[in-house]
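Action item from last meeting closed. Structure (264 res):
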């Protein structure tokens, strides 16, 4: 396998698990993350593989980071066959209790950075006449998310954008796939302050193992679809969303991820 994959959020739970899958399958890898220390640890962890691993330290909160990532790829004389936009984060709590700067950063990473990277690398793929783009949406894309309103909305954007882009780019032999995970056991919830100390979410929806998810996600990448739901529970929840009005959905989501009451 002489193809090269670029993965953003490569040091995160899902990103790291997918990096391992790609390396095992013989792909070369470009790992992008904001932590130099974690990138070096990731490279060391995969040092036994014969595949080439490149590391790029960039923070997608910064508006110019997609361009800098692209320029570094060009400087290394690499062609990206598969772009995996796995970087993303969430913020838990009432919107008015959150800083607007936090929500702007969420948009910069989850939406703007993803869209810019798609634009930059898809242009090269169009010129070559082939390529694959994997964008990480979420089961959250199908629901209004009380207490994580910005995150849910950002994933709805990713899903809609990816489906439309898939239709536009298929004439150039470029595949675009939105992957919609269920609740996965990663550090995401702790970083978002949506873990068991703050929210009932992980008690009411038991998280799936990241290793199991990455196996299914990697298999799904091989198939020509516009988006894919990973897991039976995710499929049932989305099926349920078809019949339940949004005003009811938002109350249900609010119950599922209600705040944990602190003992006084």
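Sequence:
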């Amino acid at each position: 396998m002489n193809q090269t994959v670029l993965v953003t959020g490569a040091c995160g739970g899902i990103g790291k698990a997918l990096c391992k899958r790609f390396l095992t399958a013989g792909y070369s890898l470009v790992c992008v993350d904001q932590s130099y220390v974690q990138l070096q640890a990731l490279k060391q962890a995969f040092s036994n593989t014969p595949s080439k691993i490149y590391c790029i330290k960039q923070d997608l909160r910064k508006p110019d980071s997609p361009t800098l990532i692209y320029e570094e790829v060009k400087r290394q004389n690499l062609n990206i066959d598969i772009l995996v936009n796995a970087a993303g984060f969430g913020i838990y709590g009432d919107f008015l209790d959150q800083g607007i700067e936090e929500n702007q950063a969420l948009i910069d990473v989850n939406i703007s950075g993803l869209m810019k990277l798609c634009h930059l690398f898809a242009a090269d793929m169009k010129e070559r006449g082939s390529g694959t783009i994997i964008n990480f949406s979420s089961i959250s894309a199908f629901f209004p998310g009380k207490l994580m309103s910005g995150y849910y909305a950002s994933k709805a954007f990713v899903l809609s954008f990816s489906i439309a882009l898939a239709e536009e780019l298929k004439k150039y032999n470029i595949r675009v796939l939105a992957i919609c995970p269920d609740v996965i056991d990663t550090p995401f919830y702790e970083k978002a302050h949506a873990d068991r100390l703050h929210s009932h979410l992980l008690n009411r929806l038991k998280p799936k193992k990241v290793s199991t998810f990455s196996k299914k996600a990697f298999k799904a990448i091989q198939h020509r679809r516009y988006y894919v739901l990973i897991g039976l529970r995710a499929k049932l929840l989305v099926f349920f969303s078809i019949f339940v009005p949004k005003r009811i959905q938002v109350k249900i989501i609010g119950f599922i991820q209600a705040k944990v009451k602190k003992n006084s």
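Note appended to the action item: The mean pLDDT is 94.
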